[in-house]
C-alpha cells in the first residue's frame, strides 16, 4: 500500500493545485481533481439565470473537458444502469421532457433519479445558490423545448429528436446543425453542462467555482457508507469498494483496484467478500487516484499505454532518470570541444566537468528533494484491469547519487541534440533511454519494444546493473552497418552505442594511445582509413568511403577485410602526395602495437567502435587546428 500512501500524501501536499487548470505537453488541459469530482467532455453549455430561468445555450465545438461532481455509482456506471451524475450529465438524464420528444426508458426514468439527487443537494444545508438556480429551472421539465427553440437540438416533423443527421432533413435545416459536428452518437448522448448567468455581475462558471466544489464535497461526505479500518492510513474512515478509472486518459476504463468476483470460484476461495482482502477509505481512494491522474498528465512518459512516472511527494518535479545529460544539465553543451593531448589532461577536465554536473544538478533540484522519490510503472493487459508493474520509493540522496553515477559512467560525446535556437550542440554525457531504444531497435521500433527496454534499463540506472547484453549487441550491430542508415542517424547510433559500451570499459573520448586491446586498435585502423580517403574527396561529395562501406564485414572478419580496405587506399595516398606521410606513419604505428597472433579473423568486440570514434575525433581535431593556423597565417601576410 506504500504507493497509495505516497500518492495520498502527494495530494495533501499540493492542495493549492486543486482545481487549477494546467496545460500538458500536448496542450490538453488538466487539473488536480477535488474529491468526489471527475472530468467529462461537454457538448452543450446551458446558461441559467439566478432566478432559475433559461437564458441561452451554445454548442461547444472544441473538446471541453469539464470538471463535474461525481458519486461512487455514477463514476463507475456502465450499460443500462441508471446512476446520474449530481449536476452535469447526458441529455437523457437532465431533460425532464426527454420522453415527450421521443426518448425511451426501459426501466426507471433517468431524469427521475437525477432530479431526486439534485433536489437533495439543493435542499441540503450545504447547498450553493448556483445549484439552487439550476435545480429550479430543471424542475420545470422544459430543457429540450428551450434548446430546440434555439436550434441547438434538432427535431423532425413529428417533434421527435433526430437520431442522426441525414440529407432528408435539409428542408428543415438548410445547414448541417453544429450539434452533429461534435457528437459521435445520437443527440440523447450529448453531455450538458450548466452555469449561472447574471446581467449585473460577473459569475465564475459553475465547473470552475471552488465554492461549488466544496459544497458538493461537504454534502456527499454525509452520504458515504459505513466506516472501516483503512489499510493505507490505519484510520477508521468511510470505506469504499468502487475505485476510480480514467487513470491514464478520459477513455481509460482500466482500474487499479477492483473486486467483482462474486460468482463461481469466489475470490479463489480465500474470502467471502472484497473487504476481507483489503479495505480502503473513500477519501484515500479519491485523493490517491486524483493525484495519480494529475501526475500522469503533468510529467509521466507513456509508451503503448505503459506509464513511467517519477515524482516527489511535496514537490512533484524531480530530475527524470530517463532523460539524457543535456536535458538535466544544458550547460554541458557549452563545452565546444573536448581537451586533446594527454589522457591525463582529459581525465582532469572530465573530473572537473562531472563535479560541476553534480553540483549544478544538486543546486537546480535542491528544493525538489524535500521528500523521497517515487518510481512507478503502470500497464494494463485488458481494458478493465491495470497493474503496478514496478514501484520503488528511494531516499532522495541515494536517488541523486545513482543519477549522477549513471550520467558520469554511461557517457560519450554526442552531437545530435539541438539548443533553443535549433542549432546542433555537442554534449558529453549519458543518452536518454528512448534514444537507447532508437539505437538498439531503430526509429520504426514498436512501442512494445521501447516500453520493454525502458523498464529493463531501470536496474542499470538505479542499481548499477550491467546493461542487458542483447540491447548492447543490437546497438553494436546497427552501428556497424552505416551504409544502411542516413549519415545523421548513423552518427547518433554510433555515439549512443559508444556510451553503452563505455559503461563497462570507462575509456575516454580523447584518444588513448596506450590502449593495446585488439578491437580498439583495429577500430583505430579503420578510422585512419576513413579519414584518409575522406580528406581527398570534395566537400560536396557525400559518398561513403571504403572503410564505411566495409565496416560491417570488418567487424566480423577484420584481418581479411582490412587487406581489402588497405589495398583500396593506394589511389588516395597517391593523390595526397607528401601529405600522405602522416597517415602512413600512423597506420604503421597502430599496426606495430598489434601482436601477430591478434591479426586474425576473430570477430571484434564493441570496443572497436570506441577506437574508431576516438581516432577519428583526434584526426579531425588536429585538422581543424591546422586549418585555423593556416587561416591566421594568411591573414597576417595580407596585413
Please give a quick description of this structure.
With 639 residues, the protein is an alpha+beta fold. It has helices at residues 2-13, 72-75, 91-94, 110-122, 129-138, 143-149, 179-182, 210-221, 282-299, 325-328, 343-364, 396-409, 433-441, 447-462, 469-479, 487-505, 518-535, 546-549, 551-556, 558-568, 570-576, 581-593, 607-638; strands at residues 22-23, 29-30, 37-49, 54-69, 89-90, 191-197, 227-229, 236-240, 280-281, 301-303, 306-312, 373-379, 387-394, 412-418, 424-429. Helix content is 42%, strand content 14%.
Account of the 3D structure:
The chain has 639 residues and is of the alpha+beta class. It is built from 23 helices and 15 strands. Strands 4-3-6-5 form a four-stranded mixed β-sheet, sandwiched between helices. Strands 10-11-12-13 form a four-stranded antiparallel β-sheet. The protein has a three-stranded antiparallel β-sheet with strand order 7-8-9. A hairpin with a 2-residue loop joins strand 10 and strand 11. Helix 11 packs antiparallel against helix 12, helix 13 crosses helix 16 and helix 16 packs across helix 23. The longest helix is centred in the last third of the chain and has 32 residues. The N and C termini lie far apart (78 Å). About 1% of the residues have low confidence.
Q: Oligomeric status of the shown chains?
A: single chain
Tell me the helix content. Answer: 40-55%
Poorly predicted segments: 339-343
Structural class: alpha+beta
Largest sheet: 4 strands, mixed
Strand content bin: 5-15%
Q: Total number of β-strand segments?
A: 15
The Cα radius of gyration reads 33 Å
